[in-house]
Amino acid sequence: MEEDQExxxxxxxxxxxxxxxxxxxxxxxSSLLEELxxxxxxxxxxxxxxxxxxQLPDLADLVRFIEDKARKVFATTQRVFKGPEKLRRAMRxxxxxxxxxxxxxxARPGSGKQMANSHVLLQFNxxxxxxxxxxMTTIQEFFDxxxxxxxxxxxxxxxx
Length: 160
Fold this sequence. Notes:
8 helices, mainly alpha, globular
């Protein structure tokens, strides 16, 4: 794994093919999620390039929230918003609402008026936003991307 790659690229490079059924699905093994989601990787993903890797003072609580409660939400959100500014905005709003891994998976987006008023991610748009974070496109991307991090883990039973 190349350390100079963006976190979302490192995650994408670690996806494996499912051998569970005939449908081809890609997933990230849970052990690799823990390995990739280091404090430093999270800080770097949330920081602008001109921050020189310095952690912004207001990111410490956000990083702790991600590490403790929202690793999968963060990894999924980063696949939708690859730039740090939108990623920070989305994750701060998730933090303020206590939206974390326990809230996954999010429901499939509806269409038309049903979508316009009801999807859970729409609550994280702020009325004063110049550009809306959660649109039909970004919600669909989040929905599709979350499954690669939600693969069930099967363990071999041991006889006693």
